[in-house]
Automatic annotation (TrEMBL):
InterPro entries: AB_hydrolase_fold (IPR029058), Epox_hydrolase-like (IPR000639), Epoxide_hydro_N (IPR010497), Epoxide_hydrolase (IPR016292). Pfam families: EHN. Belongs to the peptidase S33 family. PANTHER family: EPOXIDE HYDROLASE, EPOXIDE HYDROLASE 1-RELATED. Its EC number is 3.3.2.9. It comes from Cacopsylla melanoneura. This is microsomal epoxide hydrolase. The keyword Transmembrane helix does not apply. One of its GO terms (biological process) is epoxide metabolic process. It comes from the Eukaryota. Keywords: Aromatic hydrocarbons catabolism, Hydrolase, Signal. Residues 50-155 form the Epoxide hydrolase N-terminal domain.
Amino acid sequence: FCSWISLLVVMTGVSYVTYVKLKVSPLPTVPDKYWGKGDPVPDDTTVYYFTINVSDTILNDLKARIRSTILAPPLEDVGFEYGMNSDYLKVILNYWTNEYSWRKFETAFNRFPQYKTQISGLNIHFIRVTPQVPPHVKVLPILILHGWPGSVKEFQRFIPLLTKLRKDENFVFEVIAPSLPGYGWSQAAAKTGLGGTQMALLMKKLMLRLGHSQFYVHGGDWGGIIGSMMATLYPENVKGFHSNFCLVYSPLKHLLGSLYPPLVVEDKYAHRMYPITKKLEFLLRETAYYYIQATKPDTLGKWDVQLCIIY
């Protein structure tokens, strides 16, 4: 019993010291780096219109490569335990080749005003919808950020909801929805080190470029992480932050809960957190993609190229 009391006292002390340090630590300054190719050059600050227009040559080439794909048969009596099931993958490939209409998507998406501008050496694509409303109606700028594996298409349905004035309300949103660097029609970094913190700075620079020194932010998945960093690093710019990807991780809290779950969670929710061994087993089994993308992302791309050459 005494050993448990001692452990609890030590852990409480460590938590208090950590809390104090986090509370008083100054915010870091994020270096403004150049992410384009070669040596840094001044950005072209022009904001110009952009329209999606993928050529038939590219679309036909993609369909030809999909049709020429050779798939190994799956193991017997196996679903998705070992990864993608090739029988199901055939259904997906058939859909993309014979049923999906890129032109239909292209036409629908081009209804949104789209632009590009250069930020820190990268050409960034974004949607900007500015509602036309009476003078007494407030127009609030909001930056909405997608995640992985995603794109600005995630916002296709609810952008009109944000930009349309509702009955008995005196405000509406101006929506800015950028494609994150390397996604969609935004240029990928040519140099290493472009993470969530650096993207937070890029997104702030985009909003300043568009004339918004104060704005709201929404983000999901990686967009939620980037938005959280923006709200933390630039509180003078971010008036409010909303996320559907809220993460709170406390090792001490999880450890105490593993000993006695009611300390940290209601009984009806305990199964979502404990036992920790099962949660760790799930992470080990289902996050292989994360580790290869985090450590050897080029391997995936090079392997795809090799398969194309072989077949």
